[in-house]
Amino acid sequence: MISFPLLLGLFIVVLSTRPSLERARHVIADAHRSIRELERRKQALSRRIRELAKESLNQRLTSGQDSNETDDLRDRLQTLQQRIRDLEAMDRRILVLDERRGLSETGWVLRVRRDPAAAPPLEPRVITALWDDGRYVFFFAGDPARARRKAQIRFPEEHGFTVIEVIPHAGDLTDIPKLAGPAKIA
What we know:
By secondary structure, the chain is an alpha+beta fold. 57% of the residues lie in helices and 15% in strands. The protein has helices spanning 4-89, 125-133, 144-154, and strands spanning 94-96, 106-114, 135-141, 161-169. The radius of gyration is 48 Å and the shape is rod-shaped. The termini are far apart.
């Protein structure tokens, strides 16, 4: 049979390998924990990357929409600025040339135009352009024909002036009259 010293040697070998086996089991358990932790981190990072990709796509789409809206707003702004420039280019001032008012008279706003050929030779081009579009004047009169006659006395046809339109305006000029834009007459 097996001798005692051999059993004793075998027992010593088993006892001496046991700490190594315990350490190996701990190392393996730590490795399994580390692998599970790495898998968990990998899944969390994968989920985060997907979320960031969705967010990036949404931002790209939103950025494209914002860019389109910005372009639309810029176009509208330019259109409005051009309209403002056009409106400012029109002379909407009303020259008040009549301060006396009869009991039966009402206010009339007349647009008077002057032929560019009748302009004085040294008159600035800006003033000539104002008359090309027509200037607004205010008179008190009983009817449009009388208002037109008053304007023709002040702006005679022999000097190149023409009354383009007569707009009734009740009262005085404390209320802003509704004026049309300048109409080009050929």
